[in-house]
Design goal:
This protein has 12 helices and 5 strands. The chain is of the alpha/beta class. Helix 8 links the parallel strand 1 and strand 2. Helix 7 crosses helix 11.
Length: 280
């Protein structure tokens, strides 16, 4: 484990168990992403990093049980590297965005050092027949990609990528058909409809597995198993390489609990070849 990864893990532990507001979750998420640098930032600099006001940073520190931000920063300096991590100064904005995504993938790799949460999620999803997969707006592409591949090994995958009044009807239909779990991809900006839909799914008796951009995302309180993977925020629109890869890892874990997954893949390959589906 690198120093940066260790500091990020300790920050996560510091935030766990606290009821944070959406603004405070944003601050927490920004601190985890820049764990090596945060102990050396002023409250104004942290506010700029998170895109919030300076008083919000002070209230955040108090919510964590500190007298103010200086006390929080002193605490962080005890568990962080002795100096901020060096960053290349010659990168242009496009390179910086790529480097940020690489860092997100490094954090994901470190999180997967403990494979038990993903394996548990794979078991839950594999056992659900049918399996509804939810993703709205920015997360629709993630949900579609997972559902596309999952449909090759799982007997009944139901994609929920359009909101509206019928989404609860479709959840009801999945429950009546025997569904026991729902997989959700949740990315910022988090639509209120996703939060409401997850609350409805839990009330309907479904176990909710969520891939989200942060453990502090608004969907956390309605998720039984939450798997975090950070998004990149350096461009005009967020980038989601880590959530996409986590979705594929989760798919792999699900395949491990589907005894006929390999047979289904081989059958698909045979039919695809017979139909001339792909250009060799």
């Amino acid at each position: 484990m690198s120093v940066t990864d260790s500091a990020a893990a300790r920050l996560q532990a510091l935030f766990e168990g606290h009821r944070l507001t959406p603004t405070q979750r944003r601050i927490a998420h920004s601190m985890v992403r820049r764990a090596a640098d945060v102990p050396f930032l002023s409250s104004v600099e942290l506010a700029e990093l998170a895109g919030v006001s300076q008083p919000s940073v002070t209230r955040f520190a108090v919510a964590l049980g500190f007298d103010g931000y200086p006390a929080l920063r002193r605490h962080l300096r005890e568990v962080a590297p002795a100096e901020p991590a060096a960053r290349p100064a010659s990168y242009n904005e496009y390179q910086q965005a790529v480097e940020a995504e690489i860092e997100n993938l490094r954090h994901l790799a470190q999180a997967l050092a403990d494979p038990r949460p993903v394996r548990r999620a794979g078991q839950v999803l594999a056992a659900s027949r049918p399996l509804p997969v939810l993703g709205l707006r920015a997360a629709a592409a993630q949900a579609y990609g997972f559902a596309y591949f999952a449909g090759k090994v799982h007997p009944d995958v139901r994609l929920l990528d359009e909101g509206g009044t019928m989404i609860q009807d479709r959840i009801d239909g999945a429950v009546r058909a025997g569904a026991s779990a729902l997989l959700c991809f949740a990315l910022p900006r988090h639509p209120r409809e996703v939060v409401d839909t997850l609350a409805y799914a839990k009330d309907a008796g479904l176990t909710v597995v969520t891939v989200a951009d942060s453990a502090f995302a608004p969907v956390a309180k309605h998720s039984d198993l939450l798997l975090p993977a950070a998004v990149g925020t350096g461009l005009a629109f967020d980038t989601a390489c880590a959530p996409m890869l986590l979705g594929r890892v989760l798919l792999e874990a699900m395949c491990d609990d589907l005894p006929d997954a390999q047979a289904r893949l081989e059958e698909f390959d045979q039919r695809a070849a017979a139909r001339g589906l792909f250009v060799e």
